[in-house]
Amino acid sequence: MTASTRERRSAAVVREPRTPPATRTAGGVRLRGPEWLDGPMTSSHLVLGSAGMLLAIGLVMVLSASSIEAALDDQPAWLPGVRQVAFALVGLVGMLVAMRLPVRRLRQWSGRAMLVTFGLLALVLVPIPGLSLELNGARAWFNLGFTNFQPSELAKLVFALWGAHVLATREKYLTTRTLLMPVLPVFAAMSALLIAEPDMGAVVSVGLVVAGLLWAGGLTGRHVALAVAVGGALVALVVSSADYRMARIAGFINPCADSSDSGYQACHGLYALATGGFWGVGLGNSAMKWNLLPHAESDYIFAIIGEEMGFLGCLVVVALYAILAWAGFRIARRSADRFVQLASVAITVWLTGQALINMGYVVGLLPVTGVTLPLISAGGTSLVLTLFVIGLLVRFARAEPAAVVFLQSQPRSRLARVLFPAPSVAVDPLPSRRRTGSRGSSQAPGRLDRRGEPLRGVRVDPAGSRDLRGARRTAAAAPSRTRRPEGWAPTPEERWAPADRQTVRGRQPAGDRPSVLRRPPSAAGPALRDVPRERTGSGEPPAVRPRPAPRSHPPRTERPGRLQ
Q1: Can you tell me the distance from the alpha carbon of 267 to that of 362, in angstroms, rounded to the nearest whole number?
Q2: Residue, of 455 and 312, whose pLDDT is higher
Q3: How far apart are CA 252 and CA 367, in angstroms?
Q4: Distance (Å, rounded) from C-alpha 88 to C-alpha 387?
Q5: Per the omega criterion (within 30 degrees of 0), is the bond before 198 cis?
Q6: How many CA atoms lie within 13 A of 15 on its CB side?
Q7: In 3-state terms, what secondary structure has residue 448?
Q8: In terms of Cα–Cα distance, which of 506, 303, 337, 535 is closest to 427?
Q9: End-to-end C-alpha distance for the chain, whole angstroms
Q10: How many Cβ atoms sit within 10 Å of the Cβ of residue 148?
Q11: Whole-prediction pTM value?
């Protein structure tokens, strides 16, 4: 070993690790996170990582929580778990599709999707034999044979995209009235259809979407307080209109006072959490899933997690939802597209808010509303649409300006380019409503009119064809028409110019005219002498004006067979 090698190794050992830089704020010194946290692809990695771990936990816990009930119903114990895995595979395909969708198409189709959603919500209330399905007193599903479809789950996603598109379109002239009027009336109409099912949990979830849109849209604090007051009054009115909702409120205040009736589910959920303790009783060893806790695989699956995996398992789930929420807000903060910002906030508030509501009523902090835990609870429609929403978040994360530059500059494999295409631009423009694909019209890039739309002109056929009926109109080949100012009058030179210097479409501008007028010699007569241009400003003709030579015509020849 040479001396230089020993010196390099000693220097490598002595070198201290780089510490993260500190940022001094008003409250003191705040340490920044690691450098990889500010990377261009961090948002998409956090969304995929947290959602993937939540999905894995959900598949395991659904299999554990539903196996006993399936066995008691004379079914294979693994059947509910395998069915959930099948829905997860369909959802993963939908996630890959969502990652490839262009943003402009999402905005373009959001209005039509809203009309279809209203049609489905109205159709589900009609008792159609073989199609309508009523479960637990609610008519909220369509029986598709192999699974049940719930239109209210689709309504959450469509409302988030439609609301983001409307607010992004009105961003330049957005006021409090234009912020509330397109969103609140549609929310009221959708809530009326959902309450008619009845499905109060879906109303709460759509309300979370509306809250996210209005918050990201810039609603003031005074209007937020007014909205909370009005919303609280409406919720109290809806709860008092049904006896079973009042029973849920009574069970929330004291769940174990009537543990055999109204507070049965809430009280047994608390028993499950208390049994788990800090470490849990072990995976698959829950006692409450033996038909002691209703809906253990869907509404109260967080209680089974607490019983089998303990406080640590619940803490991991809460931390994963916190990471997902932070990543969603990070996408909205770093994005350059207003639609992406609004949609990311609405989707993030919806997912994390629904998770907080579910975990809140399981631990006894909120009344039971029947809201499922995203990515974990059993349910086919909910899982597929939630994974599709995760794919949209990843698509929005890959549209960040730094992510677009990184993806376009790095070499990628063919499979990665097919499955995860790189966006071409950070802001995907919305297509114009004017018809641009008709015959005889095309857009000319680079030139816009006062309304921001491309100009159109005439482009003659390159082959020299004079037939303009089939020519396409573009701005590059538009005929130049100089608009004369008011009070314009021809100059004396233009007025007394020879006839062969006149043009059909107009005279030449003054800056393009030569200093003297020349007429080439011809066989008809001698050439005119040069006449200098004189501008008198009085409109009189110049002092010396050439007289045009008389035109001579060729001799007339007789044609055979023509009458003279």
Answers
A1: 9
A2: 312
A3: 5
A4: 8
A5: yes
A6: 8
A7: strand
A8: 337
A9: 121
A10: 15
A11: 0.71
pLDDT in tens, 41-99: 899 999 999 999 999 999 999 999 988 888 888 888 888 899 999 999 999 999 999 99
**Count of H-run helices and E-run strands, the chain:** 17, 7
In three-state secondary structure terms, 134 is: strand
Query: Which amino acid makes up residue 200?
Result: M
Cβ atoms of residues 395 and 318 within 8 Å: no
Which residue reads 């047994």 in tokens? 268
**Closest Cα to residue 287, out of 479, 2, 65, 465?**
65
* Residue type present at position 282: G
Q: What are the two backbone dihedrals, phi and then psi, of residue 287, each rounded to the nearest 5 degrees? A: -100, -25
pLDDT digits (tens, 9 = 90+) for 126-147: 888 888 888 877 888 888 887 8
Q: What is the average per-residue pLDDT within 268-292?
A: 89
Lowest mean pLDDT, pick from 208-217, 415-424, 462-471 = 462-471
At 561, which helix (H) or strand (E)?
A: none
Q: Which of 193, 440, 211 is nearest to 346 (CA)?
A: 211
User: Three-state SS for 190?
Assistant: helix
User: pLDDT by residue (tens digit) across 4-53?
Assistant: 444 444 444 444 444 454 454 445 555 566 777 888 889 999 999 999 99
- Interatomic CA distance for residues 381 and 387, integer angstroms: 10
